[in-house]
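sry for the spam today, last one i promise. struct tokens for design, 126 residues
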């Protein structure tokens, strides 16, 4: 399979031209190389030039669609969050108006009670 000099350079760091860091990080198997081949050939191999270009353009269009869909979803989520905030602000404003209305009703009731008390006092005087 391998001829002599390639076999020794793939098994022994000192016979290889690969730097030490890469040699250590590569590990003791060929999984990384196999994965790289699989990734490189994921869209097909031995394609004609026009077929490869068309396939590449379709992938680019598909990726753009996914990106646009994600951006659209993000925009919708932001709009929903904005609407939630607006609704919360409206609810707070309504509660504040209700509190103010109750306060005014209490003032009116207090005035009516004072008025009734004064009438009773006048009725007793006359």
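last one done:
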């Amino acid at each position: 399979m391998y001829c002599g000099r390639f076999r020794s350079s793939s098994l022994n760091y000192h016979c290889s031209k690969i730097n030490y860091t890469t040699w250590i990080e590569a590990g003791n198997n060929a999984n990384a190389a196999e994965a790289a081949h699989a990734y490189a050939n994921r869209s097909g191999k031995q394609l004609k030039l026009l077929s490869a270009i068309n396939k590449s353009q379709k992938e680019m269009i598909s990726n753009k669609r996914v990106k646009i869909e994600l951006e659209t979803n993000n925009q919708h989520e932001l709009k929903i969050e904005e609407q939630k905030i607006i609704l919360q602000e409206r609810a707070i404003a309504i509660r504040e108006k209700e509190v103010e209305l109750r306060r005014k009703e209490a003032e009116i009731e207090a005035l009516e009670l004072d008025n009734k008390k004064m009438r009773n006092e006048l009725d007793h005087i006359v």
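The mean pLDDT is 79. ok im logging off now
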